[in-house]
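protien #1 (seq + structre)
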Amino acid sequence: MGTDMWWTTMPEVWMLTAAISLVAVVSLLSLAMTIRVQSRKLSELREGIRALGADFNALCSGAAGVDRRISRLERQGLDLGHRQETLENQRQVGDMPYGEAIQLVQKGASAERLVEELGLSQGEAELVMLLHGMKKEDAASVLAGG
């Protein structure tokens, strides 16, 4: 009886072993397919990260270029502001002798006095004398050649 039991339980053990082996093989195949799918997804994610890195580098380079252009434009704006201020100051300083020369001529000053006191050239002093030292009708006729 003891030997009969061993032979009767042996097919059940083989069937149990075969079932466990089948489950193990199916599990391994499923795991291999899952690993392949996950590996493909990982490759796609790595490619996406590489592309994002390249885009980021391009944006950084572009931002650096924009920053240089903005700095250059700011410098140009400051330079233009300084130049405009200088020109306005020169114009104000340059206008003062003529305004003062006109007032002196209207009070009867000579061309020599304008040259000496205001630093005008002889031609400038004579022109101020011509335009502001006589009546407007007389100046118009002198300019017209009459």
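ok now protien #2
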Amino acid sequence: MIIQVQGKYKGIDLEQEEAQSRPEYRTLRKTKGTYVLLVSVRRNTPVKVGALGKIEFRKGTYAYVGSAQNGIEKRVARHLRREKRKFWHIDYLLAQEAVRIEKVLYKETPRQEECRIAQTLSKPGNPVRGFGSSACFCSSHLFKIEERSLFEIMEGWGSDPLTNFRKPSGE
């Protein structure tokens, strides 16, 4: 189901097994920009994350901010695969049995917007220090956050990067 939004911001509810066959997923094919993965960690899960070492991920919802200048479809398809070479920090987390991508929010943006969005999420969210931010000066690109709160926060951001996201109807 596409998340109800205004403006250029869009989102998709994902079922891991069928996501790539859904028509709304295919709209990502040519979209270049920034995305936010809403990731569910269903139980406390320790993960060795490359050079960051062992991180204990507490049960809950996390928001991961990334960018894809060669098309969000390819990047999201990679994130959805369990079997892959681990390259980015997020690969280590997403490979865990208790972890699942629930939604993808995205927007056509220049690359630098990725860090602006991460900085905005760092205020209400609990950052996982150093996660996904080895190529920039952000504290993190992964934040433990309440999903319902995330949409409420987005509605109040005014001119910030994620303005116009709306809470999915029916929740």
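DSSP finds five helices and eight strands in the chain.
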